[in-house]
Amino acid sequence: MKYLLFLFFPFLAYSQQTQVVDIIRISAEVRPSLSEKQIHGRVTVTFLILKDTQEVYLDAVAMEPEAASKSANTAIMVRFTKDKVWLEGAFKKGTTYSVNFEYAATPNKALYFVGEQIWTQGQGKNTSHWLPSLDDMNDKIEFDLTILAPKGKTVVSNGSLIKKIDSQGLTSWFFDMKQPMSSYLVAFTIGNYSSTKMFSKSGISLEHYIDVQDTLHLESTYRYSKKLFDFLEAEIGVAYPWQNYKQVPVRDFLYAGMENTGCTFFSKAFVVDSIGFKDRNYVKVNAHELAHQWFGNLVTETSGTHHWLHEGFATYYALLAERELFGDDYYYWKLFESANRLMALSEQGKGQSMLDAKASSLTFYEKGAWALHLLREAIGEASFSAAIKSYLNKYQFKNVNTTQFIAEIKAHTSIDVSQWQKDWLQQADFKATQAYRSLVASAFMKSYFEIASLAPEAFIDKKIFLETALTSPNDYIGQEAVYQLSREPFADVLPLYKIAFNSENLFVRQAIALSQEDSIPKAIQLDFEGLLEDPSYVTQETALLKLWRYFPENRARYLDLTKTSIGFQDRNLRQLWLVLAINTKGYEQDSHASFVKELKGYASATYSFELREIAFDYIDTLSLWDLETIESLLQATTHHYWRFRDAARKHLDTILKQESLKRVVVEAANNATPAEISYLERIGFVIKH
Ligand SMILES: [Zn+2]
Fold it and tell me: What distance in angstroms lies between residue 117's CA and the mean position of ligand 1's atoms?
């Protein structure tokens, strides 16, 4: 009988473990080795038996035992299999046991060695690739890590740093956690970091780390951090649950940010100076990961079906925090943008129920935020906030599902939420009418919709409205007016362009730079040149490219003006400048070779993938592929970040279509790593000998 066989499938037995044992503590000393890209560890696991059993496991992917492992109090066998460590003995209900063992692993995910940095990424269920732990989120464990790193490096991990001990060129960093958490939230990073420390209103230590070479950008990168913390702690109404809060930007990160408990990691692309802050700052991600410290880390979903309890809440509370900093208009604009994305999905028939474990991020994050926004509108701030407080207190350090959340809402309001549940949690479509009704409650959104509705009208009929819109103190209304101007014959709209340039609104001026497509009329050349000095790297990059293209006689002057500009972490301005300089005949002709060399250098693994991706695109456009850049490209085809890896693979496909370059690939393959060779084999390029 088929179903009987099914019962013996091992994963069914595994999933029961939380009823048999409670893993209480994992203390581990780990030593990552940069040169071998390996990790060695010594673990003490303490567990309480809930039902008599012969065996208990930890998830441990591709780990090898390192030394004879002995238990502290009874004869317990330790056995390694391909994805688990089994602890075997006659375990009695109600008894607590402790076991030690040592292991080594060479993880192909979850632990990343990037340049001078090492960092971990536990979510999905990946911590078990470098630390024996539990993939199941439903058993929360107190983790106490000791991390061995070369002397002089800085280590950041969950919990409080209680001491550091130097020995034989290594420093042991001892961290202590007081509360349990799911294993995917364990993390550490090693790097050359400097840091500052401040305290929240409630006295929590807030530590901001940064690569030593980026120390000058510390303030702009972390701007508003303390404000966000104080706001969210007050807004959520439950004290921040962990001992401290640290944040670290790491290179080549897989996501925008990751909410490791008390220890958020985020992408180094958010390390910005004061100009970059205006274009691309960390505020939203900062608030989002911080909100997860309650929603996700303190109360954790029982399974992926309830993922919105993490992402919807983090997105919503981040929006509330941004509203506190940037005002109501900003808040409604962000909701409007997200409504547009959700509506587009829904109109294609691809709307998703919030309780679909396989739903997209758009659903979990943005539909989730919309659901909470409307729920709070429906039941009122007081009830909403009381329900949230009660929900967090009741389930703290435990796991939750959507039914339990709804029960807390129902306990705090007499308003019927069953229709809301149907509309926002269960069915798949995005309820656009409800969303629109909520948006027009904002006077700003109302004026925006009025201006946007003028788009099809004749210019003469809307001139006066656009003119007012351009000087609106609100960024979004002015931008919409500029986009409408760009579709009209230039001679008619020139006076309005002058108003837009004079608005001194950075984003209205940026809209001019971005919307001028096929030419720049002579009448606004001077104004357009002024954009090169706007404090926005997006504006500067766009303006430089367009001025260079449409006023060839002034190329040298534009290049002189922007010679020392770098731009974001990805050096967007510097790389564009090099490309333009190389293509400007007679401009510093003697230096062209060194410009080419610099641009090609940016393709190398010394740099972040964001920077390299731009370099590869330019190298391709300028046909600069050679042995050096193709070697860098081969390296990128096996990079851990899939988007970058895919972009590199596309370039390689194009290169392999050209006979002359094919020969260079053969030459580059001589120095390729086994992983690169295996990719070349997979696409049928290299034949195995
Ligand atoms: Zn999140």
Answer: 23
Beta bridge partner(s), residue 155: 190
Structural domain 1-191, CATH architecture: Sandwich (2.60)
The structural domains of the chain, with segments of one domain joined by +, span 1-191, 194-293, 299-441
Task: Give the pLDDT confidence score for residue 35 in this predicted structure.
Answer: 85
109 Cα–ligand 1 center, Å: 20
pLDDT tier at 73, thresholds 50, 70, 90: low
Contact 440, 426 (CB under 8 A): no
Helix axes 459-470, 475-485, angle to 10 degrees: 150
Residue recorded with tokens 């060839």 = 552
Ligand 1 center from residue 289 Cα (angstroms): 6
* Mean local confidence (pLDDT), 585-595: 96
Report CA(321)–ligand 1 centroid distance (Å). Answer: 15
Which residues lie closer than 8 Å to 537 by C-beta, 6 or more apart? 275, 276, 279, 567, 568, 572, 573
Q: What is the C-alpha separation between 23 and 136, in angstroms, rounded?
A: 11
Tell me, in angstroms, the distance from the centre of ligand 1 to residue 123's CA: 11
What does R_g of the chain's alpha carbons equal in angstroms? 28
Please give the CATH architecture assigned to the domain spanning 194-293.
Answer: Orthogonal Bundle (1.10)
331: which 2 tokens? 């808040």
- The verdict on pTM exceeding 0.85 is yes
Residues contacting 138, CB < 8 A, separation 6+: 18, 182, 300, 302, 399
Q: Which residues of 118-150 are buried (b: 16+ CB within 10 A; e: fewer)?
A: bbbbbbebbbbbbbbbbbbbebbbbbbbbbbbe
Q: Residue 311 Cα, ligand 1 centroid: separation in angstroms?
A: 5
Between the alpha carbon of residue 544 and those of residues 58, 187, 513, 683, the distances in Å are: 57, 42, 10, 39
CA 43 to chain centre: 30
Residue 657 has which token pair? 């279509």
- At residue 10, the pLDDT reads 44
Contact (CB, 8 A) for 536 and 279 = yes
Question: pLDDT tens for residues 651-665?
Answer: 999 999 999 999 999
For 343-471, strand residue ranges (E) read 398-400
Contact assessment for residue 57 and residue 80, using Cβ atoms and an 8 Å cutoff: no
Distance from Cα 598 to the centre of ligand 1, integer Å: 37
How many angstroms separate the CA atoms of 37 and 106, rounded?
6
299-441 has which fold? Neutral Protease; domain 2 (1.10.390)
Question: Do the domains 1-191 and 299-441 sit in the same CATH topology, yes or no?
Answer: no
User: How far apart are the CA of 359 and the centre of ligand 1, in A?
Assistant: 14
**Six token digits for residue 180:** 């349990």
Q: Is 289 left (phi over 0), alpha (psi -120 to 50) or beta?
A: alpha
What is the side-by-side order of every strand in the sheet holding 154-157? 111-114, 117-120, 188-191, 154-157
pLDDT digits 0-9 by tens, 384-394: 999 999 999 99
CA dist., res. 689 & res. 677, Å (int): 12
Q: Could you tell me the distance, in angstroms and rounded to a whole number, from the CA of residue 258 to the centre of ligand 1?
A: 7
